[in-house]
Design brief:
The protein is of the alpha+beta class. 25% of the residues lie in helices and 34% in strands. It is elongated and about 85 Å long.
Length: 507
């Protein structure tokens, strides 16, 4: 058995959409019959986007399973000979058996065409919506700009949609007009609600006609009410251009709009199956569904341990033992703020005289070794984050200072230190000893080396944060003279309830 992926293009004029239905012929039905006849076995395709009646496609995606020995990349040529002229397979290839076209992170791109002239053109009648009112393209562009980004698009989807979650992300939205009066609205996003693109098109047309001022579109977005938006533009103007699948997981996603701000850290998912959801700000009425959405996205992307933080000051909205969708949240750890006050020396002492461990600036040739030590040492720590070379480069450019911790000529550990702006403080962003050097007292010596550096710079305070679950580190910091002066909110651990029950049963 193998799974084959198809890139499908079609003229949707004569079809009742993609998905099989009893009242008319569909793209899915035609593909199933042609494939079953070609491969001589029952075939049922799974489509990525179930386009509506009359909608066209240049690059829809579908998969099917087969036992045929025909090479997957040749199936497109054989299949096209059995398809009507208004359906063509642009490419075919084998994919893993568990690859599903609707369960992958992707960017979908649609185009909606509006023929804006006084007299219609017969050649465009099946592929563009004809509008003889003069449309103000600049005002349409102004209105479209507020839709870019992650928002709740409830105002822009059909009321009868079965989708409970109406948050989507638009990466780009452009409008261009050619010399023949053809306006092309091109929109790319993480996914689209039912009729969302056509409702956006209908709303922007009203802006272009002067019915709505451009700023009213933001009010429509905020209303979260379908009745507030414009009409649904006709299907014939819509074409699914492409579906581009994510080749590797985005290490970190940051979203900041007027309703919420969060970070979703995914860099540890591939190796450790661990993800983080840090909500910095969120409207109370959106909070629960935001947690559910982000945790589920993290889980779908492969995380099996997901740490959730409500970081908005004065808020404690996460509840111990409560279910958020399919996931139960339990308190896991919190970060302790620790400090050490340094006494200024009347006479400047030689640097590092009290510690055999010395700090040496990290150079590019040593990056791979630094990263190996860091990632190995912190692999099991809940509050750790996997680092890569691009992170070192980015943080160095942002002002972070990276140092090797050395013992004589032998590398024994690593650290990241930051001078806090407008303070007399050195922040120990991270510090650790290479795993093979554990148990030799080098951690204490490393802390002394950092303290010596701070004193050499004339600073009076050291600061760090440590997870309360990291008992060895807390003990080391206390031994080095650090005291707790504050705490951060709890990180909650979210796991799929069904999987948690199975895990508990095995243990």
């Amino acid at each position: 058995m193998k799974r084959v992926k198809l890139v499908v293009s079609y003229d949707g004029t004569n079809y009742c959409g993609w998905q099989f239905q009893p009242n008319g012929i569909t793209i899915e039905e035609v593909l199933n019959k042609a494939l079953s006849d070609l491969l001589r076995e029952p075939i049922a395709v799974i489509g990525a986007s179930r386009t509506d009646s009359g909608v066209h496609a240049k690059g829809n995606v579908a998969v099917f399973d087969t036992q045929s020995r025909i090479p997957p990349d040749k199936i497109c040529f054989a299949l096209n000979q059995r398809l009507p002229e208004d359906i063509r397979i642009q490419a075919s290839e084998e994919v893993p058996l568990d690859w599903h076209p609707r369960k992958q992170n992707c960017t979908k791109t649609y185009e909606y065409k509006i023929l804006n002239r006084k007299i219609d053109m017969p050649m465009e009648r099946l592929y563009a919506y004809f509008c003889y009112f003069d449309l103000d393209l600049e005002k349409m562009r102004q209105a479209a700009s507020c839709l870019i980004g992650e928002h709740d698009f409830k105002s822009f989807c059909t009321v009868r949609t079965q989708t409970e979650e109406t948050v989507r992300t638009i990466y780009g939205l452009t409008l261009e007009k050619d010399g023949e009066g053809l306006i092309t609205m091109r929109i790319s996003g993480s996914g689209f609600l039912y009729n969302m693109v056509r409702i956006i098109a209908g709303t922007l047309i009203k802006v272009g006609m002067g019915v709505y001022p451009p700023e009213h579109v933001e009010e429509i977005l905020d209303a979260r009410d379908r009745q507030a938006a414009g009409g649904t533009a006709p299907a014939k103007g819509l074409t699914l251009v492409s579906i581009e699948y994510e080749k590797e997981l985005c290490p970190e996603i940051e979203v900041n709009n007027k309703d919420w701000k969060y970070h979703m850290v995914q860099r540890e998912i591939p190796e450790k199956k661990k993800g983080y959801v840090i909500i910095e700000r969120c409207r109370d009425q959106d909070f629960e569904r935001t947690v559910i959405r982000l945790v589920h996205q993290c889980y779908r992307n492969g995380a099996r341990e997901i740490f959730v933080l409500d970081g908005e000051p004065g808020k404690e909205r996460l509840i111990q033992g409560e279910y958020y969708g399919y996931y139960r949240l339990e308190k896991s750890y919190r970060l302790l703020k620790m400090e050490k006050r340094l006494e200024r020396q009347k006479e400047k002492k030689p640097p590092f005289e009290t510690s055999p461990v010395k700090l040496t600036a990290l150079k590019r040739p040593d990056w791979s070794r630094w990263l190996a030590m860091y990632n190995e040492s912190f692999f099991q720590i809940a509050s750790s984050a996997t680092y890569g070379g691009e992170d070192i480069q980015r943080e160095q450019q942002a002002g972070s200072r990276f140092f090797w911790l050395l013992k004589g000529r032998k590398r024994v550990g690593f650290a990241v230190l930051k001078l806090l702006p407008e303070t007399d403080t050195l922040d120990i962003d991270m510090i650790g000893i290479a795993k093979e050097q554990w148990g030799q007292g080098l951690g204490y010596q490393a802390m002394r080396a950092v303290e010596n550096m701070a004193e050499d710079l004339g600073l009076s305070r050291l600061e760090l944060m440590a997870a309360d679950c990291n008992k060895p580190a807390i003990g080391l910091y206390r031994k080095s003279g650090f005291k707790i002066f504050g705490t951060r909110p709890w990180f909650f651990l979210a796991r799929d309830a069904g999987e948690r029950e199975k895990t508990d049963g095995r243990e």
